[in-house]
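User: Could you go from structure to sequence for me? I need the amino acid at each position, not a summary. C-alpha cells:
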C-alpha cells in the first residue's frame, strides 16, 4: 500500500497488544525492502524465532534454512509480520 497511511502503526499496535502476546507462542517482526531476498528474509526470521541458535549464519541454502525454521515453528502458534 501507499506510504504514510498507517500500515506499520496499525501492525505495531496489534503486534504489541497484550491479547496478541498471550495468544501466540512466538512473534516475529521482519523488515523487508523492495529488493526481496528470500534467503536473507528466511535467515532473519530464523534469527528472530531462535536467537540462541548460533549456527544460523553457517546455513547456506534456502532448504537448510527452511528445515531449521520448520523445526522451530512446528506445533507452535506464531505471528509473523512483514513490514
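Assistant: Here is the amino acid at each position, in order:
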Amino acid at each position: 500500500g501507499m506510504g504514510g497511511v498507517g500500515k506499520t502503526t496499525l501492525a505495531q499496535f496489534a503486534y504489541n497488544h497484550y491479547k496478541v502476546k498471550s495468544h501466540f507462542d512466538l512473534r516475529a517482526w521482519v523488515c523487508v525492502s523492495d529488493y526481496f531476498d528470500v534467503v536473507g528474509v528466511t535467515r532473519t526470521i530464523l534469527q528472530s524465532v531462535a536467537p540462541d541458535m548460533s549456527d544460523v549464519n553457517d546455513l547456506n541454502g534456502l532448504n537448510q534454512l527452511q528445515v531449521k525454521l520448520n523445526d522451530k515453528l512446528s506445533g507452535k502458534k506464531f505471528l509473523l509480520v512483514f513490514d
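One structural detail worth keeping in mind: The two ends are 11 Å apart (CA to CA).
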